[in-house]
């Protein structure tokens, strides 16, 4: 019987707190077949992954699908990763002849650690 996506997301968050492989509260990999079993579905559709992923993001976790597994992690695990300098981003901006507006509707990312 299929589980609700909220229950599946909750289980993935609970697994994050479990101790295994000598670590606790660390990012972990889960196989596609394992997630299918937890979700109680024969096939993990894009909608299921998107809905579980959104629920995970809403609580500070991330579900990252790769070809052979999915990664479950917390935003806090990656706060100290390197940041792309503005000068590099500027060299890759897509400019189409239209003037770039300051308020283009994108949400600004705030960093509380700065």
Protein described:
The protein is an alpha+beta fold and 114 residues long. It is 35% helix and 15% strand. It is built from four helices and five strands, in the order αβββααββα. The chain has helices at 5-17, 32-39, 46-58, 86-91, and strands spanning 19-20, 23-24, 28-30, 61-65, 70-74. Strands 3-5-4 form a three-stranded antiparallel beta sheet. Strands 1-2 form a two-stranded antiparallel ribbon. Strand 4 and strand 5 form a beta hairpin. Helix 1 (5-17) packs across helix 3 (46-58). The longest helix is centred in the N-terminal third of the chain and has 13 residues, at 5-17. The protein is globular. The model has no long low-confidence stretch (mean pLDDT 88).
> How helical, in percent, are the residues?
25-40%
Major beta sheet summary: 3 strands, antiparallel
Euclidean distance between termini CA atoms = 46 Å
Structural shape: globular
Query: What's the count of strands?
Result: 5
Q: Give the helix/strand class.
A: alpha+beta
Radius of gyration, CA atoms, in whole angstroms:
18 Å
Low-confidence stretches: none
N-to-C order of helices and strands: HEEEHHEEH
How many helices does DSSP assign?
4
Give the strand order of the largest sheet, numbering strands 1, 2, ... along the chain.
3-5-4
Fraction of residues in β-strands: 5-15%
Q: Give the averaged pLDDT, no decimals.
A: 88
């Amino acid at each position: 019987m299929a589980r609700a996506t909220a229950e599946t997301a909750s289980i993935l968050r609970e697994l994050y707190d479990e101790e295994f492989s000598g670590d606790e509260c660390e990012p972990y990999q889960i196989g596609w077949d394992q997630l299918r079993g937890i979700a109680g579905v024969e096939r993990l559709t894009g909608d299921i992954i998107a809905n579980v992923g959104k629920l995970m993001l809403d609580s500070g976790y991330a579900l990252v699908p790769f070809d052979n597994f999915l990664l479950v992690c917390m935003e806090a695990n990656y706060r100290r990763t390197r940041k792309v300098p503005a000068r590099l981003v500027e060299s890759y901006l897509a400019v189409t002849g239209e003037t770039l507006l300051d308020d283009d509707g994108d949400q600004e990312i705030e960093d509380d650690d700065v």
